[in-house]
Amino acid sequence: MGPPDPRRRFEELYTEHYEAVSGYVRRRADDPHDIADVIAETFTTAWRRLGDVPSGDRARLWLYGVARRTLANHRRGESRRAALTTRLRTELEEWTGPGTEAVPETARAAFMRLSADDREVLSLVAWEGLGNAELAQVLGCSRLAVRQRLHRARKRLATELAADDPDLARYGPRAVRLAKETS
Q1: Which fold does the domain 101-179 belong to in CATH?
Q2: What topology does CATH give the domain 6-88?
Q3: 96: pLDDT strictly greater than 60
Q4: Using one digit for the tens of pLDDT, what is the confidence trace for 7-49?
Q5: pLDDT tens column, 121-139
Q6: CA distance 73 to 179
Q7: Tag placement on the chain: N or C end, fewer CB within 10 Å?
Q8: 150 pLDDT higher than 80
Q9: What is the DSSP string of 12-42?
Q10: CA 34 to chain centre
Q11: 131 phi, psi to nearest 5 deg
Q12: Where along the chain do its domains lie?
């Protein structure tokens, strides 16, 4: 008799251990969507690594280990998203600080007048915090090409901002940093 059919083995594993894994995850996660995601990812990992799953009751313990690591990864992701939300809220406050109520729409309009390529380069630097080497990798070009593209995009943004406000002062430090090269 040959090795068991992988699909059948997975179905048996799932049927036998779903309740135990589900209970494990439910006791450790709060949000129903998170629970469903962690359970699904746990069994997806079991399918991908079916050859590594031990037999018998040791399979349940192995699945608990996978669920535990999946929960930890999920929590780290949530922490990163919360930190990003805080950072974006702070950046938004810079754009909309006291006495700058009209700035966001004007600065946004200047930004939107740029080409899609210029907006992407500036966004990758300002919002994603990428440096030249990382930009080159994302954009698929040399570092020299990135420096030129970034320099030109910043000059075009400065021109657009200056069209609405020649001294750029009312746009605050964030817009000026975007507009002027700080190499």
Answers
A1: Arc Repressor Mutant, subunit A (1.10.10)
A2: Rna Polymerase Sigma Factor; Chain: A (1.10.1740)
A3: no
A4: 999 999 999 999 999 999 999 988 888 899 999 999 999 999 9
A5: 888 888 788 888 888 888 8
A6: 37
A7: N
A8: yes
A9: HHHHHHHHHHHHHHHTT--SHHHHHHHHHHH
A10: 17
A11: -95, 180
A12: 6-88, 101-179
